[in-house]
Structures are given as C-alpha cells and as structure tokens.
Design goal:
With 101 residues, the chain is an alpha+beta fold. 30% of the residues lie in helices and 37% in strands. The chain has a 5-stranded antiparallel β-sheet with strand order 1-2-3-4-5. The longest helix has 11 residues.
C-alpha cells in the first residue's frame, strides 16, 4: 500500500499528521491524527473505488503521474483536507467521514 504524507505539524500545542493512501481495494483513505495533549482526534476520509477513479482522472495531469502525487502536490497544507472535500463535493465525488473514538 502506497502512502504519502500530506501535512505534518509539531508544535508546543499539538502534533498533527495527515496522510493519504490507496488500499488494496482501490479506495482512497485520508488519515488524520491530531494530538493536543489533553485531547486527541483520529479521523478518516474514505472514498470508494469508483469515486477514487473519478478523482484520479480529474486531478492527474502531465505534472503528476499518480493520484497520490497529485494530492501531495495540491493538498499538502493545514487546510488540505477541507479543500479536497470541497473539491469532491463540487465534482460529485462521494466520500465518508469517519471519526475514531
């Protein structure tokens, strides 16, 4: 399973790590882990295989050979997840948001 780091922040107040991977079923997963000492949040955006294919067609171009490279090149900032999900909504790409407790 290939994975790319989309965003990482280590500060006195919090540690945030967001990564993207395509699983063995062809689904795109955006995995987030935020730890603020007194609070922790883990979450996942899941895009099914069919919608991952649609997203790949939309985002790949001559600059990026793979979907993961396109994500790392265009959504690699603190607001990357929100921008990606907005892009998905605008282009009719369905996704699920799962918060791990």
């Amino acid at each position: 399973m290939d994975e790319v780091l989309l965003y990482q922040e280590n500060s006195a107040n919090a540690t945030i790590v967001v990564a993207a991977q395509i699983d063995e079923h062809g689904r795109l997963l955006i995995l987030g882990d935020e730890d603020g000492g007194e609070w922790e949040k883990e979450y996942c955006y899941l895009i099914d295989r069919e919608n991952t294919k649609k997203l790949s067609v939309l985002l790949k171009n001559r600059r990026y050979a793979t979907l993961l490279q396109a994500l790392a090149g265009g959504f690699d900032d603190p607001n990357g997840c929100e921008r990606l999900m907005e892009y998905c909504r605008e282009h009719g790409i369905s996704y699920q948001y799962i918060e791990v407790e």
